[in-house]
Amino acid sequence: MKKHWLIALPLLLSFSASFGVVPDKPRFVYGQITKEDLELKSSDFPGDPGAAYEFDRGKSGFIVNKQESGFDVTFERKTRIKIFNKAGYDYSEIEIPLYTDGNSIEQIYKLEACTYNWENGKITKTPLDLKNVYEEKINANWIDKKFAMPNVKDGSIIEYSYTIISPYKFNLHDWYFQHRIPTVYSEYSVAMIPFYEYVFTLQSPANPDVQESYEDRSISRRFGTVEYHNMIHRFVMKDVPAFDDEEYITSDEDHLRKIDFQLAAIHFSDGHSTEIISTWPDLIKELLKDHDFGKYIKSSKSYLKKNFNENEIKGKSDNEKLAYAVDYVKKNFSWDGRYGKFASKSLKEFTREQTGNIGNLNLFLTALLQQMGMDAEPVILSTRSNGQIHSEYPMLQGFNYVATLVKVGDKQVLADASEPYCPFDLLPDRCLSNKGLVVKEDAQDWVNLRTYMPSATIDNIRIDFTSDLDSIKAKITRKATLYDAFRLRKTYKKAPDNLTEPFKEHGMTMLGDVSTENMDNAAERVGMQVEVQSPDEIIKDRIYVAPFLNLPVSENPFKQNSRTYPVDITYAKTRTFVATITIPDGYTLQSLPDEYTVDNKRIHIEYKGLHSGNQVVITGTYALKSPVYAASDYGNLQFYFTQIIKRFNQKLVFVKSDGLTKS
């Protein structure tokens, strides 16, 4: 087949910007190490890191592939890292990912690496022996080249460089300006030829220090009858702080400073163009025609028509049908642990082996629900660890999962058949990202994956003192719903003894075995009960007792002074503690703690006590009402958690009756 090529547009911007050349030459030159470089200290950087990137430079471009009568993509990288101490040694373990489609693979060239040290009053150099470079297959599409830098010690500088040549035009290298350690200087440039059209997105809270585009007229190039110059796009960021993945984020990919590229179009010499970035409706049509997606659903329906007994669902409501369908798939098939928006096995293999990936399970579930006469469609999404979906550019690459959307009465319910201990009408929490695309013909609908229905855990604690008053005995009954119940079931099924770990960590001794309730019934609230003994604190004629036995949160998860990205707690949640304490004979409660109440759109906190006869009842509840909070809410959350920690862990004081001072 004859290949036709025509000039394509230069790189398209996903945002408007003005460009200008800015003097920005760094003092770092690859291969030129000075004594001053080796004398850099961790204290020169915020947070005393174990290592830091002194510079990281990447460059992408295109070269002619004469055998293919076309172009290959090139990527060059030159990197220098300062190792301060053992905490930074992991950065001397280098991994270089290479893409393969199973037929061909990206090739690495000009790999070199060297470690520099200051020894005996001079700079020593230890090059990498290429015999120590090895390969590791990550999955069907990725192979890692790996090596460990030689002679690394506290104070070392490591440098490495390499070139990758790739036949995959769609795989123009993305670039990360930010890492988990500081970066002094990061630069990425792309030399675009006028044969391909790309779009890019820049993810950063601040503009690059340098962002410029210009035509490189120093070299004229020719391909076929077309003469052209490269179009250079260059980005520089300086003094980039280490990425600090504080508690409550989705994926690093949603927040790291980086630039992503997507091939948008190819233009041909006869005047027509091939659009790579399509539209969502067109992508939906492609999915519905795909053998491992839409056709898999159709094949599954044909299979179920012959093998599923519809008498099993006669007289059932839609909600009961959904519960039956999810349970049917869970009981007859198992998840092999792999994600995927497509079925990884043929229907014949899946039904014979009775195991498959997420695509196999949930596309089959969709087919079963449709066969039952229900309104059900597949929904493709990106898991939390994979990063959020951005709907500006219709591309399938960001999706790595498929679930089922089904209409139950006047509600839309998301379902998944992979987790035995998850309720039938609840997605596993790994799926609680931002949104999913409903794959339905002649439609473009997005569904919100967040849930505002709170998952609740309630601890009822009954406390009595031992006869010698040197310890307390407590019966703790824990009830949990929704995602809290799901996690408790998974803990129990993995290792039942793990249920007692939170109590042991707080100095409690188990008295007898744990009793459980509904551990095998995902549709019901789960329960457990333990009896424990714990030392109290006696000072003179006073006994000090923490009514909630230190089970509430004791360390504020919000430690930073400020935050630039949202606080994502996965799902709304409520935590309740109710402690009933029997006062020992001869003692009385010194005073009830102050009541405390907060109720607003973000959070609800209630703490109160009641003293009646020889019993004290202390109740504490806090509810996080939203699964996601804006960065501007960070300070409020930090303050509220300070109050929760202070009040929910405060101690009651019981005083000997004859030791009370009359007022």
UniProtKB/TrEMBL annotation:
Pfam family, one: DUF3857
Residues in the signal sequence: 1-19
DUF3857 domain residues: 73-195
Gene3D superfamilies reported for this sequence: 2.60.120.1130, 2.60.40.3140, 3.10.620.30
Keywords associated with the record: Signal
Source taxon at top rank: Bacteria
Annotated protein name in UniProt: Uncharacterized protein DUF3857
Lineage of source species: Bacteria, Pseudomonadati, Bacteroidota, Bacteroidia, Marinilabiliales
